[in-house]
Amino acid sequence: MEVLALERTLTELDHVRLTNLVHRDSRDGSFSSRALHIGDDLDAAAIVPSRQVSPDVVTMYSQVLLVDPATGQRSQLTLCYPADAEPGAGFVSVLSPVGWSLLGLRVGCVARWLTPAGDERVAEILAILFQPEASGDYSM
């Protein structure tokens, strides 16, 4: 199943924090064209209270298990804010192409993104190994 950006589900807290982050970075000029695209996605997302988000939705600080459908290669990553990003350790910024493609999708969905070199990548979300809201943490 492939999900379009219009079908993203975000918690209220994630939505507020990401909107503020995008507005701040767009004013700084850090990634202005990307900020516009992300801002549009934020505006189109379904927003739910943190206590009501389904446990199969990728939220901030969720740890996800992915599979490349073409190769069968599995990978695990944690979606985080840019200041906490450590790609080598599996912590991927939500503002990176892969991070943004995963946010708000559900288990079973296929995420698509472009690498900095312009290559398209695809991954299916096999499982959410940890979601803060599902464990009772509504402040992350």
- In DSSP terms, counting alpha (H) and pi (I) runs of 4 or more, how many helices? 3
Helix content: 25-40%
Strand elements, count: 7
Low-confidence stretches: 1-6
Query: What class, by secondary structure content?
Result: alpha/beta
Average of pLDDT: 87
Examine the coordinates and then state which fold CATH places here, giving the name of the CATH topology.
Chitinase A, domain 3
What is the end-to-end distance? 28 Å
Question: How would you describe this structure to a colleague?
Answer:
It comes from Pseudaquabacterium terrae. This is GreA/GreB family elongation factor. One of its GO terms (molecular function) is translation elongation factor activity. The protein is of the alpha/beta class. It has one domain: Chitinase A, domain 3 (Roll). The chain is 26% helix and 26% strand. It is built from three helices and seven strands, in the order βααββββαββ. The protein has helices spanning 12-28, 32-44, 97-102; strands at residues 9-11, 46-48, 63-67, 74-80, 91-93, 110-114, 120-130. The strands form two sheets. It has a five-stranded mixed beta sheet. A two-stranded parallel ribbon has the order 1-2. Helix 1 runs antiparallel to helix 2. It is globular. 29% of the residues are buried.
What's this model, at a glance?
The chain is built from three helices and seven strands, in the order βααββββαββ.
List the helices and strands and how they pair.
Elements (H helix, E strand, L loop, with lengths): L8 E3 H17 L3 H13 L1 E3 L14 E5 L6 E7 L10 E3 L3 H6 L7 E5 L5 E11 L10
Parallel strand pairs: 1-2, 4-5
Antiparallel strand pairs: 3-4, 3-7, 6-7
